[in-house]
Write a structure and sequence with these properties.
Helices cover 29% and strands 20% of the residues. By secondary structure, it is an alpha/beta fold. The strands form 6 sheets. The protein has a 7-stranded parallel β-sheet with strand order 20-21-19-18-22-23-24, sandwiched between helices. Strands 2-3-6-9 form a 4-stranded antiparallel β-sheet. Helix 2 crosses helix 6, helix 3 crosses helix 12 and helix 7 crosses helix 15. It starts with a strand and ends in a 17-residue tail after the last helix.
């Protein structure tokens, strides 16, 4: 059988790693040359999956990225496929350090700009939407009926408005507003109602809910120049009457918003959410580190980037605390992870329930492995702040928000906090969209990019084949962010996705 050099068919990510990642399907019996010796593939290894580089006894810690991703659950011979059948979780017992790996990102030599919408308080929008924010699920259908009247050719007479979006959800009553769940919902709704990408908002309620229109409006920023109108279905005379009244209100809002024009702003005004979903064995090798490079480029411009998905940094949080600008910031991250341990244990689970079946099919075995690849989205900049879900994002630089790993809920929290563009990396393929913040989707491999070409904006698969470096891919992402922020339409926007992906995180008892 012909021989191949290991480097031609697999990626060794760190010199002393125990496994390499296959860049094509490897057949049993293939002979690979590695480190001056022959390595025979013991059993089929799918593309994106791991191959053992040496004999590994049961209980051996396995290293990838130079970090432990688990322990063998059986003896693993050299050349064997390493996955869920012979690799399991390892105990996570990190000694946390704070600020020991802070690497300052030098300011960019020249400032980049984008074309955005000026808002009060110094914020800048990348889109110009009318939002219909529902205080309660009881007004969700009515909100959609109103928004549906402003779709298609009708919007052509408002060229400076990106659309009317109904932000409907499944909660708002049956909970105590002062509870943890109630406060999260209020933060989320207020974050959308005052979002820089929403220039005007109609707040729509039923009229008797626990979290009512007045409660929601009471927490909006005092200095906001967002045009705000309100309606309740009970006071307006029912669904039909409210749809008629709401449509009249929206027409007025559209006319006023259409007067807005894009202006030139420095890239420092951008707030960019960093998220991933449908990850595979290449996520931590291609798209995520490329996005990390783009994040560093944004930070160099004075912009803000926000990593999220707390359950998917578990096991790699020690790498983030080392980059924290203070012990207080690093401890805030650890406190959120401790909260998650209590939360999942109360539900009878553990944080290592992740990865998903799709992640495993793509080559990821343990949450430790997945998290090490996920944190690469954050680049190398210092960690300047840690936020709770939907908390307003105020600090420049690289930051973190506590969100679930479930993509629509995570992105909803990022947007509620103020993200005006979201970059979403995917290996298996994701069809996530977002409103009012555009979602830019980046494929980790060229096969997914080609198969789902109408859903993917960028392809980083060239990093595996050697036709693209991480830095070059990161620069492409950076340039795409500026273009999207200036109005370039993403694939998900072209498909008009995003209305159904507004999903606030629901916590606590519903009575």
């Amino acid at each position: 059988m012909p021989q191949s050099d290991l480097r031609e068919v697999a990626l060794l990510l760190r010199e002393h790693d125990d496994v390499a990642v296959a860049t094509r399907d490897l057949a049993a019996g293939e002979i690979l040359r590695h480190d001056g010796r022959e390595l025979t593939v013991a059993d089929p290894v799918p593309r994106g999956h791991k191959i053992a580089l040496r004999d590994l006894a049961t209980g051996t810690p396995i290293h990838k990225y130079g970090q432990v991703i688990g322990r063998t659950t059986a003896d693993v011979p050299a050349g064997a496929h390493v996955h869920a059948h012979n690799l399991g979780m390892a105990a996570v017992d990190h000694e946390y350090e704070f600020g020991t790996a802070v690497t300052a990102i030098p300011p960019a030599e020249y400032g980049r700009t984008f074309q955005g919408y000026r808002r009060s308080g110094g914020t800048v929008g990348t889109r110009n939407f009318v939002g219909i924010v529902t205080s309660v699920n009881c007004s969700a259908s009515t909100a959609r009926m109103i928004a549906d009247q402003f779709r298609g050719p009708l919007m052509d007479i408002y060229p400076n408005v990106d659309g009317v979006v109904a932000l409907a959800h499944d909660s708002g009553c049956g909970m105590v507003p002062a509870s943890e769940g109630g406060q999260i919902l209020l933060r989320t709704l207020r974050g959308y109602a005052s979002h820089p990408n929403i220039g005007a908002v109609l707040v729509l309620g039923l009229g008797c809910e626990m979290i009512g229109v007045d409660t929601l409006l009471a927490g909006l920023p005092d200095d906001s120049d967002t045009i705000v109108e309100r309606l309740t279905i009970q006071d307006t005379g029912g669904v039909r009457a409210t749809v008629r009244a709401g449509a009249e209100v929206v027409r007025t809002l559209l006319e006023r918003l259409n007067e807005k024009r894009r202006e030139t702003f420095p890239a420092s005004k951008l707030v960019v959410g960093l998220n991933c979903g449908g990850s595979d064995g290449y996520s931590g090798i291609t798209a995520n580190p490329a996005l990390g490079h783009a994040s560093d480029l944004l930070v160099a411009q004075g912009a803000t980037t926000v990593l999220a998905e707390t359950p998917e940094v578990f096991g790699a949080e020690h790498l983030l605390t080392r980059r924290a600008v203070s012990k207080e910031v690093g401890q805030r991250l650890l406190d959120r992870i401790a909260w998650w341990h209590r939360y999942v244990e109360a539900g009878g689970g553990t944080l290592d329930n992740n990865p998903s079946p799709g992640n495993k099919a793509g080559g990821l075995t343990t949450i430790l492995e997945k998290s090490l690849g996920a944190v690469a989205k954050g680049g190398s900049a210092p960690l300047t702040a840690v936020y709770e879900y939907a908390e307003p994002i105020t600090d420049p630089g690289f930051t973190f928000m506590d969100t679930p790993g479930y993509d629509p809920v995570s992105v909803t929290g990022l947007v509620a906090g103020g993200a005006t563009v979201v970059v979403f990396t995917t290996g298996r393929g994701s069809v996530l969209g977002g409103k009012p913040a555009p979602v830019l989707k980046v494929a980790t491999n060229s096969e997914t990019y080609q198969r789902m070409r109408e859903d993917m904006d960028l392809d980083t698969g060239g990093i595996v084949t050697g036709t693209l470096t991480i830095a070059e891919a990161g620069e492409q992402i950076f340039e795409a962010i500026l273009a999207v922020a200036s109005g370039q339409v993403t694939c998900s926007e072209d498909l008009d996705l995003g209305r159904d992906e507004f999903i606030p995180w629901q916590l606590g008892a519903v009575t």
